[in-house]
Amino acid sequence: MKRVSLADVARAAGVGKATASRALSGNEEVGMATRARILDIAESMGYQPNRTAQSLRTGRFNVVALFVPLSEPWVGEVIRDCAITASAAGHQLLIQDSAGLEAMTSPAAYLRSLAADGLCVVGASHRVADALTTTPVIPTLTLLTGDDEATPTAQVIDQAVARICSDDAHRPA
């Protein structure tokens, strides 16, 4: 079955794509009756916004990359809490094993190449943490673990993900 596009919704509603887009994004320039009609049509057609198109327009991916040491027993709780936090903020959570970062020649370049709005890296070495904080391109929170550091709690990691999801994290300093 073909994915329902914005153009399909606009055609069914008898409006232009720009009007349909503004109505679906909640823009107040579209009258309430027109907006309600377009929203009803979009829902009845099963329309889902194209995240790729949105990210090209906004420069935001609504994705948080969470790198955690998957071999640790506490990680399940962290992933669950972070997924709930990210989802509540309209974000998806990309989960990868932080252990793989150590083997990379340029972990910072790899992390910055991800289609994500922010990174939360737990269990990174000082080498990886230093590389990430030297030239940050997107909001990056690095939480070290090891013999010299206390393991961050699930709450601390969850707060880090919440911070990345917030609009404040993406405003220039």
Automatic annotation (TrEMBL):
It comes from the Bacteria. CDD domains: HTH_LacI. Pfam families: LacI. GO terms for molecular function: DNA-binding transcription factor activity; transcription cis-regulatory region binding. SMART domains: HTH_LACI (SM00354). InterPro entries: HTH_LacI, Lambda_DNA-bd_dom_sf. PROSITE patterns: HTH_LACI_1, HTH_LACI_2. Residues 4-58 form the HTH lacI-type domain. SUPFAM superfamilies: lambda repressor-like DNA-binding domains (SSF47413). Keywords: DNA-binding, Transcription, Transcription regulation. PANTHER family: HTH-TYPE TRANSCRIPTIONAL REGULATOR GALS (PTHR30146:SF109), LACI-RELATED TRANSCRIPTIONAL REPRESSOR (PTHR30146). This is Regulatory LacI family protein. It comes from Rudaeicoccus suwonensis.
